[in-house]
């Protein structure tokens, strides 16, 4: 969770007991839980309002879909998949070309010349 391991959580809990004391710690934990619920409710309301404003086409919209990193990652993956398909088509075309080029030239036959390739 947020890059915090079990040992870090134990240190944070120990420091919290020392700073706030065992009497106030349960009250503070309850307040933190209430704040987290309020923040979650706020985020869910914002998401629902955004879905409502955008219309039925975006009914399955999630807030993490609006993260720029997610958008960029999605487009990069799509581009790589398209490039992979293009590479497969190019490989197939190259194989067909190489099959045609593999026959030996007859006596006196001029080798093919490709102006675009040279």
Q: What does this entry look like structurally?
A:
This protein is an all-alpha fold and 118 residues long. It contains 2 helices and no strands. It is elongated and about 100 Å long. The mean pLDDT is 79.
Keywords, separated by commas or semicolons:
118 residues; 70% helix; mainly alpha
The description of the largest β-sheet is: none
**H/E series, N to C?**
HH
Overall pLDDT metric: 79
- Separation of termini? 58 Å
Structural Rg: 32 Å
Q: In percent terms, what proportion of residues is strand? A: under 5%
Short description:
With 118 residues, this protein is an all-alpha fold.
How would you summarize the topology of this molecule?
Layout: H1 6-54, H2 68-101
């Amino acid at each position: 969770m947020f890059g915090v391991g079990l040992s870090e959580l134990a240190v944070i809990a120990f420091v919290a007991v020392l700073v706030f004391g065992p009497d106030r710690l349960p009250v503070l934990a309850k307040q933190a839980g209430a704040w987290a619920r309020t923040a979650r409710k706020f985020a869910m309301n914002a998401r629902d309002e955004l879905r409502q404003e955008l219309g039925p086409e975006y009914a399955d919209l999630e807030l993490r879909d609006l993260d720029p990193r997610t958008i960029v990652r999605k487009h990069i993956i799509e581009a790589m998949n398209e490039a992979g398909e293009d590479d497969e088509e190019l490989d197939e075309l190259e194989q067909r070309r190489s099959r045609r080029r593999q026959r030996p030239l007859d006596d006196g036959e001029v080798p093919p010349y490709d102006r675009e390739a040279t």
